[in-house]
Amino acid sequence: MNNRLAEPDYQLVIPRAVFVAEAALLLTRRTAADWNDRCELLLDDAFIRGFDGGPLAEFRELPSVVTGDPWATDSRNEPSHLFTEKQLFLRELMDGADHLLEDPARRPYWRERHGPSEGTPALDAASFSREFVALIGELEDYGYFAKRFGKDCVDDPYGDLPAQVIRRELRLNVAWPLDPAELVVDQSALFDVIELLHDLAARPRTRSLHSYGGCGWHYSSYDIQTGRQVYRWRVNRLLVRSDLGLRLADEGVDAGRLVTITDEGRGDLIRTAAARDAGDTASQVRHAIELFRSRSANRNDKRSAVAALALVLEERRRNVLTEVLAKSDRGAIFEIANGFHIRHQDAKQKRDYDDFYLDWIFWLYLSTVELTDRVIDEQARQ
């Protein structure tokens, strides 16, 4: 089966981790009367559409007959669990998930190979708005906003309910369905809508067909966590192709909020720091991260973020830092904050410095906090 997992019609349109988790959950509930319907919904939601074939088509061709599980046997070497062929198909997909493509790089065509090497142009604000609106339409069709808006049913249309929700939450008059031309005029409104729809997203796990008037699927049994996870992943795939320099945070107190982009290494540092256990110090660090990487962060916000990290390091100066830094190096760490008008209101401090110094100091301090966290972890294990 692994050979065909890399085919175009097996490309995932949700995060691989979400597919594996949802498939595993389904397999633990395989005695449910509507199991086949639930699995069809997952396959329909998880894989690319528009192909004549793919996982959903293959699933529908399989019989719903029980067969022995070849991987699980009892003491008599006989099957200890029973699976239908459809359930075994899902488990094969789950077990081979590492072979499924999430976001494959498109092979260049003739003009790209033989023309000037200019690379793929980034999406400007107008192009991004169009693609974002198209994505929201797709997610709406698959029930990702039905928990809040309900179904736009032929028997019970929801009318301007989505627009009312946006107006109430954001104090903005925004049309629904979304109009890309309207959103691109006010970029702040576009960003607000992106963040609001994240909070409203929920992935449905069951559905029923309402055939009257071509109404379509009605969804139910929503899961907010996976819905927001899929939403962030899909929107971030668009944002990374744009020139906006933003992404939706996946972790920390600002998860689901647009933050400035960093490189992969610093992104890993942010994720590690944000995932630390709760506590006063961890809360201070997460607050500093939220201040610093906010899309609206100004110089004062960044100064406050650096000052918060300096306070964490000050608390560890006499104990933890003594194990990892020489005395002169420890002094240099704090001389930076004290000399660059960050912590104290002192006329001797340097005030006329460029903002990139704040960026440098923030990442230096955050990496030092992480270093001391590792020392504390090691001390706890001894």
Can you put this structure into words, describing what you see?
The protein is mainly alpha-helical. Helices cover 54% and strands 7% of the residues. Strands 1-2 form a two-stranded antiparallel sheet. β3 (203-210) and β4 (216-223) form a beta hairpin. α11 packs antiparallel against α12 (224-239). The mean pLDDT is 84.
Strand arrangement, major sheet: 1-2
Number of helices: 18
Order of SSEs, N→C? HHHHEEHHHHHHHEEHEEHHHHHH
Whole-number radius of gyration?
26 Å
Average per-residue pLDDT, rounded, comes to 84
Span of the ends, CA to CA: 47 Å
Question: Which terms summarize this structure?
Answer:
single chain, 382 residues, mainly alpha, two-stranded antiparallel sheet, two-stranded antiparallel ribbon
In short:
This protein has 382 residues and is mostly helical. The chain has helices at 2-5, 16-28, 35-46, 55-61, 85-95, 110-114, 125-141, 146-149, 161-170, 180-185, 187-200, 224-239, 264-274, 280-293, 299-315, 321-324, 327-339, 355-381, and strands at residues 66-68, 82-84, 203-210, 216-223, 246-248, 258-260. A hairpin with a 5-residue loop joins strand 3 (203-210) and strand 4 (216-223).
Secondary structure layout:
Blueprint: H1 2-5, H2 16-28, H3 35-46, H4 55-61, E1 66-68, E2 82-84, H5 85-95, H6 110-114, H7 125-141, H8 146-149, H9 161-170, H10 180-185, H11 187-200, E3 203-210, E4 216-223, H12 224-239, E5 246-248, E6 258-260, H13 264-274, H14 280-293, H15 299-315, H16 321-324, H17 327-339, H18 355-381
Antiparallel strand pairs: 1-2, 3-4, 5-6
Helix pairs in contact: 2-3, 2-5, 7-12, 11-12, 13-18, 14-15, 15-18
